[in-house]
């Protein structure tokens, strides 16, 4: 691993204390135990919040929101991303490995048409809000602050891979992350994440509220592999909160 990457990782993650790493691990474990399909749940929330991002995911991007949870490709993607998040958290003590995992994810996505760093940023925001909504008693301000620090590091490592010089990682370059990058996250909205520490629960989206009402012990429906895909969805809709709220689908388990 390149010296600059190692140096940046050590410097940037030094702000995450042992106690904060413990907060992250414990709350992630609690969230996963309470929600077996945690990766699928996160992506359901993500696309309800940002429905216009669906076409960026060709394997299931032509499906309407209401059909996502019963599509085996969508669920497989959710599981895969959930395991990637878990791998990052499992390697918090091994900073070189953690950063390399994040970097490779950035490299792989930088090569995909249409994907941008802000898509990662929005996903991280949804992850934090989803966990906070599902496990409200555990997400104190200190816990939220620990997750914000981790996500700031994730964005600081990810963003350089989308630049003109580093995006074709066919190049294998590991020099895109510097000490200054991790200290000054180059536009990563840490202020956006920080708003979660003080935002009242009434500010959460209706889609998150719907999920909160569902018992956390209930998993998402079992997937029939022969689910028929519907016709091509309409062009990307507005990302405004009002539109998202109108298009939100109640995916709670029904008796």
Instruction: Please report the first level of CATH classification, the CATH class.
Output: Mainly Alpha
Shape: globular
Question: What's the SSE pattern?
Answer: HHHHHHHHHHH
Rg over CA atoms, rounded to whole Å, is 18 Å
Low-confidence stretches: 1-14, 166-255
Quaternary structure type: single chain
Tell me the CATH topology.
Globin-like
Whole-number total of structural domains: 1
Structural class: mainly alpha
How far apart are the termini? Answer: 52 Å
CATH homology superfamily: Globins
Number of helices: 11
Largest sheet composition: none
> Which CATH architecture is right?
Orthogonal Bundle
Protein name: Globin domain-containing protein
Organism: Rhipicephalus sanguineus (Brown dog tick)
Region (Disordered): 165-185, 205-255
InterPro entries: Globin, Globin-like_sf, Globin/Proto, Mb-like_M
Descriptive account of the structure:
- Helix 3 (38-49) crosses helix 6 (117-134).
- The protein is built from 11 helices and no strands.
- It is mainly α.
- The termini are far apart.
- It has one domain: Globin-like (Orthogonal Bundle).
- The model is unreliable at 1-14 and 166-255 (pLDDT under 50).
- It is globular and about 45 Å long.
- It comes from Rhipicephalus sanguineus (Brown dog tick).
- Residues 205-220, 228-245 have a biased composition (Polar residues).
- Residues 165-185, 205-255 are annotated as: Disordered.
- Belongs to the globin family.
List keywords for this structure.
mainly alpha; 255 residues; 11 helices; Globin-like; single chain
List the helices and strands and how they pair.
Layout: H1 3-13, H2 18-34, H3 38-49, H4 72-90, H5 95-110, H6 117-134, H7 141-158, H8 179-183, H9 190-198, H10 206-213, H11 241-247
Helix pairs in contact: 2-7, 3-4, 3-6, 4-5, 6-7, 6-10, 7-9
Family: Belongs to the globin family.
Protein name: Globin domain-containing protein
Region (Disordered): 165-185, 205-255
């Amino acid at each position: 691993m390149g010296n600059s990457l190692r140096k940046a990782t050590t410097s940037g993650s030094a702000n995450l204390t042992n106690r904060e790493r413990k907060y992250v691990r414990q709350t992630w474990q609690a969230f996963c135990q309470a929600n077996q399909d945690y990766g699928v749940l996160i992506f359901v929330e993500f696309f309800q919040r940002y429905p216009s991002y669906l076409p960026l995911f060709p394997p299931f991007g032509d499906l309407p929101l209401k059909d996502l949870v019963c599509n085996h490709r969508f669920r497989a993607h959710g599981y895969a991303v959930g395991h990637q998040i878990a791998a990052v958290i499992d390697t918090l003590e091994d900073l070189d490995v953690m950063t390399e995992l994040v970097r490779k994810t950035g490299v792989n996505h930088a090569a995909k048409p249409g994907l941008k760093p802000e898509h990662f940023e929005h996903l991280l925001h949804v992850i934090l809000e989803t966990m906070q909504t599902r496990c409200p008693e555990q997400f104190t301000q200190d816990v939220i602050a620990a997750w914000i620090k981790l996500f700031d590091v994730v964005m600081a490592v990810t963003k350089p891979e989308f630049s003109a010089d580093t995006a074709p990682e066919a190049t294998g370059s590991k020099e895109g992350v510097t000490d200054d990058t991790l200290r000054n996250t180059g536009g990563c909205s840490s202020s956006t994440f920080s708003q979660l520490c003080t935002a009242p629960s009434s500010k959460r989206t209706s889609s998150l509220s719907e999920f909160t009402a569902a018992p956390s012990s209930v998993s998402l429906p079992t997937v029939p592999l022969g689910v028929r895909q519907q016709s091509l969805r309409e062009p990307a809709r507005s990302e405004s909160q009002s539109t998202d709220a109108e298009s939100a689908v109640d995916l709670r388990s029904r008796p």
